[in-house]
């Protein structure tokens, strides 16, 4: 008989998470507040300490992920293992890992593993990052080249922690990483999932000038939920970031999670807000939207309020398309990188880039043969 979620069968998984994140986990935005004059903790469910942890809810049947496999998956996994490379796909136990790797899509994280923020949904450890690795862009580009040449990688999603202690929020490292990666892997599409840089337009411009194929910045949740879900972020600041991306002619992407406490009508209002706030010029707006089910990483994080059904996800997709998004990926297991390669091929010029690279390689081969 299986052990119910939240029971002793889950203790080993929690222990592994705590071992990876010895500093306080994200997910407790209230921990820096002064203690209350009167505590009612004994009278309410407390999801922050002691034996009263809220158990992680059992998943419904439609949230079962496929076992990874296939030739493409094995090829990329072999390269990662051989060179001891790491991806967010593995660290986050992404349910779409097998499907993405088999198509040559992976996600990596830069700027370290310690975030300066404490979002209520995120399992990245929080605190003051110890160092800034100035050599990281070179090493990332070399790692991507290995995956591109030997593992069939064709689309990379690069994300990062927040580095609010840096004057540029890490934008300089971001820009150099993008530039070096494009040079090392011509024809590979590059998508970046960036923080808000605390609204610093100059920092954002450094990333825009590096010209990745897609710039993604997740709004994550509805406006009302920001104090609990993203206490150090601002809803309107994220909208402005997406507008600036569109203003300079790049493909803009955002994503949200549902089931964390929002209402369906608030989700629809959010879709309308994104489209209205990012409209520029002749009416071009944010291009891509992803919507997925929130999954509580540990019992220290915000609890799941509801399981959103596949039928409701389909309605969200239809509503997003009707409001002007060119691509909407909406489903229980959808994450930011889901079908990201298809989005790049349909909305950017990466197919033309690959054709030019292929022609150049053929011309070089013919030149060597004629000699």
Average residue-wise pLDDT: 82
Low-confidence segments, given as residue ranges, are 1-9, 41-53
Radius of gyration using CA atoms only: 21 Å
Biggest sheet character = 7 strands, parallel
Q: What percentage of the residues does DSSP assign to strands (E)? A: 5-15%
Number of alpha- plus pi-helical segments: 13
* Strands, total number: 9
Along the chain, the helix and strand elements come as: HHHHEEEHEHEHEHHEHEHEHH
Beginning-to-end CA distance, first to last residue: 71 Å
Morphology = globular
Question: Strand order across the biggest sheet?
Answer: 1-4-5-6-7-8-9
Quick recap of the structure?
By secondary structure, the chain is of the alpha/beta class.
Tell me about this structure.
With 371 residues, this protein is α/β, with parallel strands linked by helices. The protein has helices spanning 11-20, 71-82, 88-91, 97-103, 136-150, 171-184, 201-209, 226-229, 235-247, 264-278, 310-323, 340-347, 350-370; strands at residues 105-110, 114-115, 125-126, 155-160, 189-193, 214-216, 251-258, 288-293, 327-330. The strands form 2 sheets. It has a 7-stranded parallel β-sheet, sandwiched between helices. Helix 6 (171-184) runs parallel beside helix 7 (201-209) and helix 9 (235-247) packs parallel to helix 10 (264-278). The protein is globular, with a radius of gyration of 21 Å.
């Amino acid at each position: 008989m299986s052990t119910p979620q939240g029971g002793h069968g889950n203790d080993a998984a929690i222990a592994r998470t705590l071992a990876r994140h010895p500093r306080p986990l994200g997910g407790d935005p209230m921990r820096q507040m002064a203690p209350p004059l009167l505590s009612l903790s004994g009278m309410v469910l407390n999801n922050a300490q002691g034996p009263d942890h809220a158990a992680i809810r059992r998943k419904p049947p439609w949230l079962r992920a496929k076992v990874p496999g296939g030739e493409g998956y094995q090829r990329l996994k072999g390269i990662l293992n051989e060179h001891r490379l790491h991806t967010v796909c593995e660290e986050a136990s992404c349910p779409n890992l097998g499907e993405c790797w088999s198509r040559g899509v992976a996600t990596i994280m830069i700027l370290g593993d310690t975030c300066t923020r404490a979002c209520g949904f995120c399992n990245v450890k929080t605190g003051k990052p110890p160092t800034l690795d100035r050599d990281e862009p070179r090493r990332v580009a070399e790692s991507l080249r290995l995956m591109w040449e030997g593992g069939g990688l064709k689309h990379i999603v690069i994300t990062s922690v927040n580095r609010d202690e840096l004057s540029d929020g890490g934008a300089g490292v971001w820009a150099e990483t993008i530039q070096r990666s494009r040079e090392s892997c011509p024809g590979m599409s590059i998508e970046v999932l960036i923080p808000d840089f605390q609204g610093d337009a100059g920092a954002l411009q450094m990333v825009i000038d590096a010209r990745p194929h897609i710039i993604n910045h997740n709004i994550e949740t509805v406006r009302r939920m920001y104090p609990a879900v993203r206490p150090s972020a601002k809803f309107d600041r994220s909208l402005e970031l997406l507008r600036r991306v569109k203003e300079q002619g790049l493909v803009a992407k955002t994503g949200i999670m549902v089931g964390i406490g929002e209402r369906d009508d608030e989700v629809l209002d959010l879709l309308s807000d994104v489209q209205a706030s990012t409209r520029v010029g002749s009416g071009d707006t944010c291009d891509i939207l992803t919507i997925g089910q929130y999954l509580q990483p540990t019992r220290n994080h915000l609890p799941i309020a509801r399981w959103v059904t596949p039928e409701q996800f389909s309605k969200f997709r239809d509503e997003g398309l009707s409001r002007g998004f060119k691509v909407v990926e909406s489903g229980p297991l959808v994450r930011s990188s889901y079908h990201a390669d298809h989005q790049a091929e349909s909305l950017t010029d990466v197919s033309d880039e690959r054709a030019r690279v292929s022609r150049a390689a053929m011309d070089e081969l013919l030149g060597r043969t004629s000699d």
